[in-house]
Amino acid sequence: MEQIDPSLLLLDRNVRRDAAPDKTLVESVRDLGVLVPIVAVRTEGGIRVRYGHRRTHAAIQAGQATVPVWVFDTTTPTVTPTGSSPNGQRTNTAPP
Fold first, then answer.
1. What's the confidence (pLDDT) of residue 84?
2. Is 77 helix (H, G, I), strand (E, B) or coil?
3. Could you say which of 15, 17, 44, 50 is the most buried, measured as most Cβ atoms within 10 Å of its Cβ?
4. 29, part of any domain
5. Is 50 a domain residue?
């Protein structure tokens, strides 16, 4: 696991209709930090977030200098999220 400046992470389109973090998540991250590491892959263009878009946005808004990130090589098999509720938040998830 690495500690990375969240503003350096590359963010793609999110599965949520609105990936913007709500005030509660931003306050949680400001007070406690990012509790569940962000999952990302290292690409030629940089470190690209796979799971944790809202936590990344919240960390940026909260002014966090670094966040915990599990960084996998692009040759690593796909990482499947556990369905846990990062920092107690799950909203606006698009239907399957």
1. 45
2. coil
3. 50
4. yes
5. yes
Percent of the chain with pLDDT over 70: 72
Within-domain flag for 84: no
Tens digits of per-residue pLDDT, 25-52?
Answer: 999 999 999 999 999 999 999 999 999 9
CA dihedral of residues 33, 91, 71, 69 (deg, nearest 10): 0
| Residues 57 and 34: beta-carbon distance below 8 Å | no
By CB atoms closer than 10 A (0-12, 13-18, 19+), residue 44 is exposed
> Number of structural domains, the chain?
1
Q: Does 21 map to a domain?
A: yes
Domain hosting 11: range is 2-76
Q: Would you say the pTM of this structure is higher than 0.70?
A: yes
Top pLDDT among 21 and 75 is at 21
